[in-house]
């Protein structure tokens, strides 16, 4: 009855989400406009799968690949890693292997305990574990990037940021719980394609959220559904749970990359005017939004070996979308054409226009702490390495040119890609 086993049969995808695009085999015999009957059949299958999976969880049936079935040696190594969970060089890929693919659940259980959240909110440990399993299982493991390991990586980064003195001195248990939950669930049920893809293929989620923060709204609503279904917070007053749900939404919606400038302008204004008052819940919430935005895109600030893996994974996901668009004769989205968009050029642009401006402001907020300095140093070194790799690619391209000359178009591309 495990969802992953059924997914491998080719009948339905691994996930319980409502995306008809997750298992591309389902589209093999239809056009994108699709047979209405076929689409309805797919949605019924996926809806049943979600219900069946959730009901198994609520009956207390944990997926077979449980942490507790691991050898003691692996458990020992995982425990040792957790003792260093606040270190920036934490290797989430190794941790995921040591926990047999349960990195998100294991990490969350540990962090909720470390931060005293279980005691403070009087949370039932069994219910908490079931909720974490629901969240982890609602990520698509076949996504190269937007999967539960990414969620665990973002959660570990968020833990590091919550410990920054400028923030930590003011945080309440509610702030910490919201920060960790938002980090863990910020990409839940991600389909592996971006918002423009959902809009141009007229996906029902795009119309549901009127083409605005489509994925982020879905991640938030999915999280609320699992919170209510698990009854994790059912013992708390209704007004408290409603407030938690709304703040979770505000945090997750802040990860929409289309809102990057909005948050940067506001952060710059606060820092320039020195008017942040972290005693004020509103200002604390804003800085939690910024912290989550940083955690979500912190890959370029990790050590090279980890950063490079994430870069290759996210580009692989882009290329898969491009292949799908090509298959259905749609215009290939920016960054999704494997023939034109190289990993180094994508990463250099991402670092220059998105990552650097945000992390420079974050360092200004924290007061240039050792962690902030460390992240900026990694960012600069990693960008230099991608530039070096890009240069090698262009050198190879030149040597492969029959005339031995760079064509006009190649030279123009080179100049564009290397312009900061």
UniProtKB/TrEMBL annotation:
Catalytic site: 146
Co-factor remark: Binds 2 divalent metal cations per subunit. Site 1 may preferentially bind zinc ions, while site 2 has a preference for magnesium and/or manganese ions.
Keyword annotations of the record: cAMP, Hydrolase, Metal-binding
Any Pfam family the entry gives: PDEase_I
Cofactor(s) it depends on: a divalent metal cation
Record-annotated PDEase domain positions: 70-393
GO molecular function, one term: metal ion binding
Biased composition (Polar residues): 396-413
Binding site for Zn(2+) 1: 150, 186-187, 296
EC number: 3.1.4.-
Superkingdom field: Eukaryota
Pathway: Purine metabolism; 3',5'-cyclic AMP degradation; AMP from 3',5'-cyclic AMP: step 1/1
Gene Ontology biological process terms in this record: signal transduction
Positions of AMP binding: 146-150, 187, 296, 347
SUPFAM superfamilies from the UniProt entry: HD-domain/PDEase-like
UniProt-annotated stretches for the region Disordered: 391-420
InterPro entries: HD/PDEase_dom (IPR003607), PDEase (IPR023088), PDEase_catalytic_dom (IPR002073), PDEase_catalytic_dom_sf (IPR036971), PDEase_CS (IPR023174)
Name used for this protein in its record: Phosphodiesterase
Native source species: Prunella himalayana
């Amino acid at each position: 009855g495990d969802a992953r086993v059924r997914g491998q049969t080719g009948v339905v995808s691994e996930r319980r989400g409502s995306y008809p695009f997750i298992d591309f085999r389902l589209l093999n015999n239809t056009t994108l406009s699709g047979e209405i009957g076929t689409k309805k059949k797919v949605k019924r299958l996926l809806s049943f799968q979600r219900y069946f999976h959730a009901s198994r969880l609520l009956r207390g049936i944990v997926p077979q690949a449980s942490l507790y079935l691991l050898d003691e040696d692996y458990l020992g190594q995982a425990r040792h890693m957790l003792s260093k969970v606040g270190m920036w060089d934490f290797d989430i890929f190794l941790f995921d292997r040591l926990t047999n693919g349960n990195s998100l659940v294991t990490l969350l259980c540990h962090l909720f305990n470390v931060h005293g959240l279980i005691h403070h909110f009087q949370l039932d440990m069994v219910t908490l574990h079931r909720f974490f399993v629901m969240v982890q299982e609602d990520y698509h493991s076949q996504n190269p990037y937007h999967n539960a390991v990414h969620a665990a990586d973002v959660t570990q980064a968020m833990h590091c940021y919550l410990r920054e003195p400028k923030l930590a001195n003011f945080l309440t248990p509610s702030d910490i719980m919201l920060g960790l939950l938002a980090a863990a669930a910020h990409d839940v049920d991600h389909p592996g394609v971006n918002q423009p893809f959902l809009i141009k293929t007229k996906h029902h989620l795009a119309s549901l959220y009127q083409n605005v923060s489509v994925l982020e709204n879905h991640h938030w609503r999915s999280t609320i559904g699992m919170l209510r279904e698990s009854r994790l917070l059912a013992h708390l007053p209704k007004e408290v749970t409603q407030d938690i749900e709304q703040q979770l939404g505000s945090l997750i919606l802040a990860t929409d990359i289309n809102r990057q400038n909005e948050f940067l302008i506001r952060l710059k204004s606060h820092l320039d005017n020195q008017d942040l008052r972290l005693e004020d819940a509103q200002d604390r919430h804003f800085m939690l939004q910024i912290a989550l935005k940083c955690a979500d895109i912190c890959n370029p600030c990790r050590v090279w070996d980890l950063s490079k893996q994430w870069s290759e994974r996210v580009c692989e996901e882009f290329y898969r979308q491009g292949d799908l668009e090509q298959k259905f004769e749609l215009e290939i989205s920016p960054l999704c054409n494997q023939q034109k968009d190289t990993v180094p050029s994508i990463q250099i642009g991402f670092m220059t226009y998105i990552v650097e401006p945000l992390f420079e402001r974050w360092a200004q907020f924290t007061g240039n702490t050792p962690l902030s300095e460390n992240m900026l140093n990694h960012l600069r070194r990693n960008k230099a390495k991608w530039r070096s790799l890009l240069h090698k690619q262009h050198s190879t391209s030149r040597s492969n040119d029959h005339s031995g000359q760079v064509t006009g178009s190649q030279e123009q591309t080179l100049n564009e890609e290397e312009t900061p």
